[in-house]
Amino acid sequence: MNAFLIFSRLYRQENPGNRFTPEEIGLKWRSMGARDRERYFEDSNRMKNQFILENPDFKEKRNYSVRRKNRKFMNNSPEKMREELIFKEYTNKPPEKMQEK
């Protein structure tokens, strides 16, 4: 969890009756000095290190949203399946993989 998210969570807990918008919390965060924010950065680093120790096999996955968007255009699309069937009828080898943009 990054420093701003930690600040946001604690800020909302300290002021339970008020409904703060993300913009208001962002303004409060930006108005704080570097020394005030340092506490939240330290907590963030501590949480990150603790997570790494507890999950040594974890590997960060990048570009999740890109893969998610392209998933519907991958192997199971009707056009892709039709292409493969037509190609297999004329040759005995599978078609080459489509190049990602």
From TrEMBL:
Coiled coil: none annotated. One of its GO terms (cellular component) is nucleus. The keyword Kinase does not apply. Keywords: DNA-binding, Nucleus. Gene3D superfamilies: High mobility group box domain. Residues 1-59 bind DNA. SUPFAM superfamilies: HMG-box (SSF47095). The keyword Nucleus applies. It comes from the Eukaryota. InterPro entries: HMG_box_dom, HMG_box_dom_sf. Residues 1-59 form the HMG box domain. GO terms for molecular function: DNA binding. This is 7714_t:CDS:1. The lineage of its organism: Eukaryota, Fungi, Fungi incertae sedis, Mucoromycota, Glomeromycotina.
